[in-house]
């Protein structure tokens, strides 16, 4: 990806994070957001797994047809990036690329534990900051990320 495009992508991702802040996030909100993500994925016949964590607790998980146990491993690795950096896993990877390197080469974190690939997005609550992560795995990283963002946008419009 060209340097100019990476910087443009970073701006887009940062704008998404500023815009997609929730007024609250309860167990019921987790169920509603997760169910919305599953419905969007089913419409597209997307072979994904969906996961929502808040404060270290898994509140929602679904594995759709075509997903595999590998998707659960990717979910955990991408979610850990959100938990550590407080921003989208796709954004973390893009920031490393903007520096002319990769997350794997420069983060000093175990790539078996952390993955700065698209698909995990911070759950941010007004006045509280990042409290969790919503994650999708099973599509190419940009598509995983877009699916999560689309669901959060639709959820906020409700």
TrEMBL record:
Give the source's domain of life in one word: Bacteria
InterPro entries under this entry?
Answer: PduO/GlcC-like, PduO/GlcC-like_sf, YBR137W-like
Family to which the UniProt record says this protein belongs: Belongs to the UPF0303 family.
Q: Which PANTHER family match?
A: PTHR28255, UPF0303 PROTEIN YBR137W
For this protein, the record's NCBIfam families field holds: PRK02487.1-5
Q: What is this protein called?
A: UPF0303 protein ACFPC0_11285
Organism of this sequence: Streptomyces andamanensis
């Amino acid at each position: 990806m060209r340097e100019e495009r990476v910087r443009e992508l970073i701006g887009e991702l940062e704008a998404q994070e500023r815009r997609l802040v929730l007024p609250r996030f309860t167990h019921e909100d987790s169920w509603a957001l997760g169910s919305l993500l599953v419905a969007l994925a089913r419409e597209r016949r997307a072979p994904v797994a969906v996961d929502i964590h808040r404060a270290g607790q898994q509140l929602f998980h679904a594995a759709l047809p075509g997903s595999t146990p590998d998707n659960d491993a990717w979910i955990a690795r991408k979610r850990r990036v959100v938990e550590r950096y407080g921003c989208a896993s796709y954004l973390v990877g893009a920031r490393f690329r903007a520096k002319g390197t990769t997350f794997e080469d420069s983060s000093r974190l175990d790539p078996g534990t952390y993955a700065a690939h698209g698909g995990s997005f911070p759950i941010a609550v007004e006045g509280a900051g990042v409290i969790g992560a919503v994650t999708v795995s099973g599509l190419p990283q940009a598509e995983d990320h877009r699916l999560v963002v689309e669901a959060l946008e639709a959820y906020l419009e409700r």
